Amino acid sequence: MPLSFGTRLRSAMDERGPLCVGIDPHASLLSSWGLSDDIAGLERFSRTVVEALADTVAVFKPQAAFFERFGSRGIAVLEQTVADARAAGTLVVMDAKRGDIGSTMAAYAETFLREDSPLFSDALTVSPYLGYGSLAPAVELARESGAGLFVLALTSNPEGAEVQRAVREDGRTIGATMLAHLAEENAGATPMGSFGAVVGATLGDLSSFDLDINGPLLAPGIGAQGAEAADLPRVFGTAVRNVVPNVSRGVLRHGPDAGALRRAAARFADEIRVAVAA
Amino acid sequence: MPLSFGTRLRSAMDERGPLCVGIDPHASLLSSWGLSDDIAGLERFSRTVVEALADTVAVFKPQAAFFERFGSRGIAVLEQTVADARAAGTLVVMDAKRGDIGSTMAAYAETFLREDSPLFSDALTVSPYLGYGSLAPAVELARESGAGLFVLALTSNPEGAEVQRAVREDGRTIGATMLAHLAEENAGATPMGSFGAVVGATLGDLSSFDLDINGPLLAPGIGAQGAEAADLPRVFGTAVRNVVPNVSRGVLRHGPDAGALRRAAARFADEIRVAVAA
Lengths: 278, 278
What we know:
2 copies of one chain form a homodimer.
Chain A: H1 5-16, E1 20-23, H2 27-32, H3 39-53, E2 59-62, H4 64-68, H5 71-87, E3 91-98, H6 102-113, E4 123-126, H7 136-145, E5 148-154, H8 161-164, H9 174-185, E6 195-199, E7 217-222, H10 232-236, E8 243-247, H11 249-252, H12 258-277
Helix pairs in contact in A: 3-5, 3-12, 6-7
């Protein structure tokens, strides 16, 4: 039985701090790095990020869309990127936001959470528009393979409120409902469960939500989207110790120089350490 | 300027009837066709479906997950399948249920809706958990490239109600909200707009929802999931003329014999024609 994602993530956070760095090779970043907007540029970008940061950062979050836009050849680069990052000892959260039902959800789970898959990742972001219950095949496979999930709950973009703040018959919002499902999934797990939520760092005071899900909270929005490390305790309250803050452009814009990438990541890591300890 | 997806779809529905056949190469189907659960089996399965049905069926709906589970090599088969189907004159709705924000949503749109992409499809299914507004980059690109979208609104699975029937401050459910956004998107388009909704055929009476969005309604659930063609008028009311009923296993289980696939598709097409005309 492999160690659970929650266990491995907690160790990584304790050792390296909780910073997650996105691997987001979009066209404007490739261009600012002096790279071509093609497979060669994609490969160079991804390899550079992994080589520069794999021994210091807890988690990488490759954004599947920026690889998919090159079709099968882009996915081949994604496979290599995931394998390189995992081989170097960094955890990989695949940001693919998959969601479907039944055998289709099972196929997405196999794609990213089955150990012999070419895209096997430590965890996967998933979208619950089809209901939390639709994610069950991914939950099951993650338990077997020692992987994890991050379920979209309260996202960092303002348009998200339209769905996520809508209210169910029991008076709870959709976002709160997802958090409650995850708390149930993680009940009794130590040091924490493997089933996390995506909760934007830009959302201001979240004290009306119960964020104590005994699992990780992936928090995008720091840097380019306007949140700062110093905001984390105010947004997340006591759950801040389970927060995995994601920075993408804030680090990546310092490339392609490896030293500059490392310094930018270290700066965010320090700010986060100070904020969380405060 | 290319003809819009709504225009092309209406023509295809008028000429061939509205049936959409899924291309869902999951392991159990490959096995029942006597094929290996690998790239060779995947390729053979997909080619057989396209060759058997491309000249009679209006729309194919490949399910991306069943290709992704083989990684980049599976995506290469998907590229070939989409290209073959479109070359044969069938419309392709890529069932990938993508959803994200900003530049990431734009990258998904480029992947499936940009004409020079290896996965260019006539339309894409998208998931609005991040709010309808998050889909804007896909709406924009679809308008430019003559492609379409199908936004998840009211899905066929029972777990979907948890999210889709939650209520917003204005008293509308999430599902109704998505339908209203789409009606606005399609306003004034003739013969119909390019921005459709996914609405399950299994949902029973939907008369409390305004399904008149002046765009297509992709309706999964017929066959294996328990709905029948005869149910369509009761479920969809006057919007039934815009319904694109999807059948996957109900047709595919008759393979690999091309004649049997064609007969099964023709049977569903006839039942649908009778039901919609009634």
